[in-house]
Write a structure and sequence with these properties.
Keywords: Fatty acid metabolism, Lipid metabolism, Mitochondrion, NAD, Oxidoreductase
CATH architecture of the largest domain: 3-Layer(aba) Sandwich
Bound molecules: 1,4-dihydronicotinamide adenine dinucleotide
Pfam family, one: 3HCDH_N
Family: Belongs to the 3-hydroxyacyl-CoA dehydrogenase family.
EC number: 1.1.1.35
InterPro entries: 3-OHacyl-CoA_DH, 3-OHacyl-CoA_DH_CS, 3-OHacyl-CoA_DH_NAD-bd, 3HC_DH_C, 6-PGluconate_DH-like_C_sf, 6PGD_dom2, Mito_3-hydroxyacyl-CoA_DH, NAD(P)-bd_dom_sf
Number of domains: 2
Number of helices: 13
Shape: globular
Number of strands: 8
CATH class of the largest domain: Alpha Beta
Length: 311
């Protein structure tokens, strides 16, 4: 009855109450947290039960910190809020089990087109008719993922930023076939979970990465040419352009390997675009395992910091 009522009122925005998230890594866990904290029923799916356990721990930890700030003088209320939020999250290892109950399915699995297409193809058969499908991909084409399903009108992108509970922005991506109802529902969902949505077409990198990655790569080219040092480039952009963090420190933070993965993918798709040209220095750093903060070395040396964190 539930879904047929929704189908009749097809011009109305469908209220999203049940959210399914596939992939319980860094992003999926964050998305599960914000949806559960907004009162939605969350089905969190991962092929690895260890990943699900880690996600639950991560969410509990992060919720605890948020609740402390939200209820600074009431420990009991804070605890209840954490418990209630955790109680909204159910974990599964088979995506087909909860798919029939979801109003929206958000995918945050490995960044691989074929794996994502295969997942959505399987879900298309078991999900309810009204269910919206969304991918959190950073660099793949939403249209290419959606083409594996028979519901391109109910398909879009929801591109979150890390760490999800802290970052306000949500890029809402529509492909040519995305219906107005689907788009409106995604925008409404974004607001309900406390995000500030911006709309963008299905174009490489959407808004933020499309501007940020070529900017970071141009900074790397400056280093490569010996125009300026990483420290001077970063200081210049902080003090001269008002950025909180310079481009090379930012690349170390987000991962030099991730930067390479994205720029190589775009270059392959559009080889003549000058802002998508790969960089010899980035390739060399990745070969040497200099991935940035996470490996202890990037444009800067973090090995001391890593040792300090371990202690
Ligand atoms: P992650 O590696 O932390 O988590 C991915 C999770 O997906 C893992 O727990 C893995 O077990 C699971 N998984 C992989 N294949 C699966 C399958 N077929 N079925 C079920 N579970 C599967 O990755 P992360 O960083 O959370 O990224 C996920 C997606 O979000 C990627 O598409 C990435 O491009 C995108 N993204 C990442 C951002 C970031 O800052 N890390 C920012 C915005 C988007």
């Amino acid at each position: 009855i539930h879904s047929s009522v929704r189908n009749i009122s097809s011009r109305k925005i469908s209220k999203i109450k049940d959210v399914m998230i596939v992939g319980s890594g860094l992003m999926g866990a964050g998305i599960a947290q914000v949806a559960a904290a907004a009162g939605m029923n969350v089905h969190l799916v991962d092929q690895s039960s260890d990943a699900l356990e880690r996600a639950k721990e991560q969410i509990k930890d992060s919720m605890g910190k948020f609740a402390k700030k939200q209820f600074p003088d009431d420990k009991q209320k804070a605890q209840t809020h954490v418990q209630e939020t955790m109680g909204k999250i159910r974990c599964h290892t088979d995506p087909c089990v909860p798919a029939g109950q979801a109003d929206i399915i958000i995918e945050a699995i490995v960044e691989n087109l074929e794996v994502k297409r295969d997942l959505f193809h399987r879900l298309d058969v078991v999900a309810a008719n009204h269910t919206i499908f969304a991918s959190n991909t950073s660099s793949l084409s939403i249209g290419a993922i959606a083409a594996s399903t028979s519901r391109r009108d109910r398909f879009g992108g929801l591109h979150f930023f890390s760490p999800v509970p802290m970052m306000k922005l949500l890029e809402v991506i529509r492909i040519d076939q995305t219906s107005d109802d689907t788009f409106d529902s995604m925008m409404e969902f974004a607001k309900t979970i406390g995000k500030a949505p911006v709309a963008c077409k299905d174009t490489p990198g959407f808004i933020v990465n499309r501007l940020l990655i070529p900017y970071m790569c141009e900074a790397v080219r400056m280093v490569e040419r010996g125009d300026a040092t990483p420290a001077d480039i970063d200081t210049a952009m902080q003090l001269g352009a008002g950025y909180k963090i310079g481009p090379l420190a930012l690349m170390d933070f987000t991962g030099v390997d991730l930067g390479k993965h994205i720029i190589d993918g775009w270059h392959k798709a559009d080889p003549t675009n000058p802002v998508f040209q790969p960089s010899g220095l980035i390739d060399k750093m990745v070969r040497e395992g200099k991935f940035g903060r996470k490996s202890g070395h990037g444009f800067y040396d973090y090995s001391q910091q890593k040792d300090a964190e371990k202690k």
